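Q: For a teaching handout, I want to show students what a protein-ligand complex looks like in token form. Below are the inputs, and the small molecule is C2E. Please produce the holo structure.
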Amino acid sequence: MSDDARPAAWIDLLPDGVVIIDALGVMIDANATVCRLLGRDRDQLVGINGFDLLHPDDVARAAHALAEEFVDTEAVLPTDVRLLAADGGWVPVEITGVAVKRAEGDVLALCVRDMRRRAKLEEQLRRERSFLQSVLSEVEVGILACDAEGRVSVYSHAVRGVLPTAGAVHLDEWLARFRFFEADGVTPLPASQAPLSRAFRGEVVRDVEFSVLGDDGELHFRRANGEPLLDGTGAKIGAVVAVHDITEQRQAERALRRQALHDPLTGLPNRTLLIHRLGDALERNQIHPAGVALFFVDLDRFKLVNDGLGHTAGDELLMAIGVRLEEAVRPGDTVARLGGDEFVVLCEPIAGPDETAAIAERLGEAVGRPVRIGDHEVRVTASIGVTVASSSDVLPEAMLRDADLAMYRAKERGRDGWELFDDRLRERVLARIATEHMLLHALDNHQLRLLFQPVIDAVTGALAGAEALVRLELVDGTLIEPVDFIGVAEESGLVTRVDQWVLAETCRQAAAWASARPDSPLVIGWNASSRTIGRGDFVALVRENLDRFGVAPTQLCLELTETTLIAATAATRHALTRLREEGLLIGLDDFGTGYSSLTNLRDFAVSFVKIDSSFTSGIPHDHESTAIARAIIDLAHALGLTVVAEGVNTEAQRVWLAQAGCDDLQGFLFSPPVSADTITAWLLRQAAPLAEAGDIA
Ligand code: C2E
Ligand code: MG
Ligand code: MG
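A: Here is the structure, written as tokens, with C2E included.
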């Protein structure tokens, strides 16, 4: 094309290259921009075929595009090709063209755009993207982002498994593949409420917990944080969420919770869960009174199974009983194990007393049926305490305590049965609580008193000793007898404090009287309960008091009951034997009322027995009483023991006992329990004869 035929010179000023080619591809013209791009003069370009400059791989594509454009003058097909520059390098360009109809033959005006910058940018982008992906593939957290159109575009390794092709899926489509639930794992969560959806809608999502059902059929727990992505101008360009897998954490928590609320052996609810459910039941009962009943089931003589067949067998029995109890009640009822051989059954609703009784019977039967354990057939029974929610404001703990007390009553009544907690039982309990308070107050305010009942030599009638007997003195001077508080003291454990005080006081008195009659010191008896004797420090306590008051062991005489002695552990018996060897006297109180055999007298280092007043009272007319008294005296003497008779009320009893050979006598005939001062006065009168004894009372 001659210069004057060329379009205006402004064509050279265009930022893009322009080339005119004919139908064969021969270049007719080229502007200055193309010449710069390819490093060639216009003369070097004009007249050569454009196809000669094309990269061999691009020829076919370019030919196809150009052919189209010749046919369809409207078509503007951008085609990426590479052109050969003067330096031998390939320059990436984008070519668009338009056909120009001319009389001398159609030509194509091609716009040649330099793509070197864009190619560079694209390369950079590609690199950044792969860098990001490799970073994301390393993190444990699932990271998920979508672009402004909602196409899921970036994801970390942690979510790759569920997301096949980045950029190919719209987030709605992707989310629709899953079933989401809330953090409880139960309440369905619509996909539109999934964190990525919310973030995409513009919400900032913080620590949202949810769960998703996996292909494995298991729930997977997740915690997500997310937010919309905005560009510098605040326009939305997408959204991102970070998802933590908290499945293990949740599972551990669940296991812990289960452990905290269930008995590990039987898997039944434990005390905590029972109290919780009972609380709920009582609350419901307050709104719609329907009846709530609690059954405290304690196995009778479970210890025998444990000791006889071993703990594994015991465990098996407990598990079997747990299952039986569950089978005996309705599915909604609770069977809990409090520990040991104690189960509690909570039933709700309860129609009335008949239903309560029927359930109690059923539970008893369920326990009572034989259980096969290994080669053994084991049969245990249960003592069941029953309580029914009476007032609307009863507390779970109080109800459990009532059922427990009723269970004890069932045990007292001979086991294998059930007992309903009623007002009488309640009164007894309240009285016991009042007594405990009184006793505690007395201990703290030094209101214990010690009386002494003289013990008389049956032959000489002289004062041989005295038994220390405790009293509790009220503020108004009333003396409370041990029968009214020792039982409660034993149950509550306060008896040890009582016994400690009595021991110290006894030692103090024994020391005082020893100095008043040094030649034949009085032997002072004192009583201690099995709870005190069973303590590991009992012997040390006795020694400590003897030392502290300077009392010889031979001056003290410990009165034990037969049951105390039988229940004593080997260690306690051993300790008592040591004390006995040191000279301390030990005697069996209330002899004849317990189950002790002759062996007990021989095996335990006992130095005397005390005939119980129930036999003394039958003397001399009741044949049985006299026969037993005589047998005890003969037996004791045969074993080298001294015999004391207590509860001597009449002269006839005294005479009979003295003749039968009883060594010492104690009873109202001589004196009731009196103050220490009275004993001192008696002592000072020196071995007062029997005739005068009545005066001192
Ligand atoms: P025990 O050791 O068998 O004491 C004898 C009880 O018989 C005393 O009752 C005494 O007052 C009573 N007694 C004495 N002579 C007669 C009589 O001629 N006829 C009748 N019917 N009773 C008579 P007490 O003092 O009420 O003590 C009752 C029980 O309380 C004692 O029985 C003893 O087991 C216990 N006890 C007393 N003091 C203590 C103590 O300091 N610690 C402990 N653990 N128990 C104590
Ligand atoms: Mg006694
Ligand atoms: Mg007695």
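A: Two things your students might notice: The radius of gyration is 52 Å. Confidence is low (pLDDT under 50) at residues 687-697.
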